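Hello forum,

I keep getting stuck at the same step: I have a sequence, I want structure tokens, and every attempt I make locally crashes halfway through. Rather than fight my setup again tonight, could one of you with a working pipeline run this one for me? It's a single chain of 163 residues.
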Amino acid sequence: MTALAVPLPRALAASLAGLALVAIAAPFLGRLSDRVGRRPLLVAGTLALLVVTLPAFLLIRGAGPLGLPLGYVLVGLPLSCLVIVPPFLAELFPTPIRSTALAITYGVGSALFGGTAPFLATLLVRRTGNPVTPAFYAVAVAVAAVVAALLTRETAFRPLDTD
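Reply #2:
Ran it on my machine without issues. Output:
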């Protein structure tokens, strides 16, 4: 199903722009998380996603040829803060179960939210007739992520257990 009738090369270039931003920012944000902690970046990234998701979605849908890359870049900025999720999750678990626990939590979370997102987006649009409803789903996920980030403990400055 094509929603915006955007030529594939343009869509791929816009996606590449957002992903390039994440790739460029990742090492700097990883270093920053070593200095200020993982939790502040998680909170900042999830709050920023909460704020920019709907505007980015609207920009992508209606701002002409520049809207798509600008929307992807707008979402890429807060997503860059979330590059620290894997080390954050790893630091939550004791050494003997760290790899298994990280694989399960990251894999299940990715499958539940990332894997079902295209299906849910299509279902929401078909059921409501409103092409903006996927943005509301993404905002709801961002709300849950903000709450989780605020309720979690800092992991960066504690020694990793070596048992």
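The first helix runs from residue 8 to 36. If your local run keeps crashing, start a new thread with the error log.
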